[in-house]
Amino acid sequence: YSTVRGIFATPRNISKEFLSNDDLLNYQIDQYARSLVGFKVVTTRSYIFDTKPAREIVYEYETQGKLVYHTIERYIFSSDRVYQISGGYVVTQPQSESLVRKMMDSFRLL
């Protein structure tokens, strides 16, 4: 089971107007740590997405059915807006990671 979604125009309460890029990422990590069972950060990175600065975190969590998921969260910072792209896959299906990343890489800001 894999999913990919994009959120364009994040809620105002987490926009750059109120939080720095690093604070936003730390806030999101804190929220996941408080609400997900078995949460742990797998990797983080900074990179350029379509000429815009971006951050990515990959985290792991466990569902009630004992399935372990990896979720990839990308935050793209564009002037006063933050855009989010998210994708996930079951850890026991590692071949899904490349498909999820390929779909996430196909998103573009217009």
Walk me through what this model shows.
This protein has helices at 21-35, 95-105, and strands at residues 2-7, 40-49, 52-62, 68-78, 81-90. The protein has 110 residues and is of the alpha+beta class. A five-stranded antiparallel beta sheet has the order 1-5-4-3-2, with helices on both faces.
Structure characteristics:
five-stranded antiparallel beta sheet, single chain, 2 helices, 5 strands, alpha+beta, 110 residues
Strand order of the largest sheet: 1-5-4-3-2
Helix/strand class: alpha+beta
The residue-averaged pLDDT reads 83
CA radius of gyration is: 14 Å
The rounded distance between the terminal residues' Cα atoms is 29 Å
Helix content: 10-25%
Tally of strands: 5
Helix tally?
2
Largest sheet at a glance?
A: 5 strands, antiparallel
The proportion of strand residues reads 35-45%
Low-confidence stretches: none
Shape: globular
Order of helices and strands: EHEEEEH
